[in-house]
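My main concern about presentation is that the manuscript never shows what a single data entry looks like. For the editor and my fellow referees, an illustration may be useful. For illustration, here is how one protein appears when written out as sequence plus structure tokens:

***
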Amino acid sequence: MPNEPQRRERQKTFWESDGRIVPLKREAQSRRSKPGNAGAGKAAKLTRGPDRASTVHRDGPSVLTRLALITYRAEHDRAITFDNLYTLLNYELLELAFCKLKRDKAPGIDGVTVDQYEEHLQTNLLDLETRLHHQSYRPQPSLRREIPQGNGKTRPLGIACVEDKIVQRAVVMILERIYEVDFCDTSYGFRPGRSCHQALSVLGQIIATRRANWISDADIKGFFDHVSHPQLVELLRQRIQDPRLLWLIQRFLRAGVVIDGRRHDTDEGVAQGSVLSPLLANVYLHYVLDEWFERDVRPRLRGEAHMIRYADDFICAFEWEEDARRFQDVLHKRLARFSLELAEEKTKLVRFGRFAARESTRRGEGAPGTFDFLGFTHYCGTSRAGKFKLKRKTATKKLRGKFQALKDWFRENLTKPTAEVWQTLCAKLQGHFHYYNVNDNWRGVTKYREAARRLGLRWLRRRSQNSRVSWDAYNAYLRQYPLPNPGRITDLIAMARRARDNEKASGKPRLLFC
């Protein structure tokens, strides 16, 4: 009987492979048939030379592990650049990106829906992976749709194809690992784990507890339509040195748009509504506004200064009026360097804060000013104890737009069954309450509910010319099928207090910046 060392040596020899064994092809596995050795590729020769290794990582760590490693490197070295990100665009990441798509969205110019693409998902993703790594992938133009804004104007929305959405989502999953580390805490738009309510809560905390006496309310004119492609790519190169990933992003930027059946080139701007555009917009404004404000503006000011930004909508709070005016003067020049400009009719400077009412009365200026941010009008109020309190109400322009949109929706659904329309109406009310039902805005949400109740009766009366629904019959119907009530409010003050307590417990500063 052989001794132990000899047995271990024999076992090692037994498990060694004499030739290269490659697994069954995916097509063969999907057909559930076992081909011969030639078809399976047993002991097959290399299809590439050793100097042309495949860019697709079939073995090794999973894509989630590699993404976590990118986050680790970005956190521990803010100056490091990444030059091998394109290899992450493999089947595994594309499948994860597909699972994140929403199924109730309109299709692109090819007319393919998410459900239709899923019927042959494995074949489609394998073909997409091959075209990506051969760099033969070409994004299709987005389909332009004009979305009414409620004030007589429309907003252009680009609808991409399902395949383009998958690739864009995969690119976002890669870039987020880098830029979520770089982005300032003053940025809240289209970022994971952040919301409009958080931005409003932090803004309220700044105004109520910091030396904020002046508010600079500025608006960038047509931001998404005037983003400079060359400057955006240059800003991306500060962290991304992978030429193939930059090539892919530029392909999306120049993919074009289809308007009324005709294709138009896109020489500037990023398409609103696409999966990739929010991240690219955040990267652009991170360097144009956020980093510039923290690095160059705040150290040169006399007093305190704070900024809260949600996408292209931002508010700046200053302690001194001269600081605020200096900022507004230099802001025009800063934006002009990056092919942007301010909307003069929407840019203003207002006295605001804890001492605004006292100073306005002393100077004979009347009531303190107001400003709009994220759909709310912010104004100076008082609490029950008579102290200063920042209050909010639904912006008048937004509320009128909501009323008009509700009227148009009822008019478009005159012939649909009552039960179906009523279910959708309840969902619309719940969505409105979920966002606008915040501190001190009870009157605004109840006004919207009352408008929906009256428009519902008008809709029922217009469905037929032979019958007229009375208020008594309508109230009886509402008792059986009631409209939802606003319910519990979203307490923005308590949200700020909880965030402050969590930061104290973790040892972090009260307000974090870049």
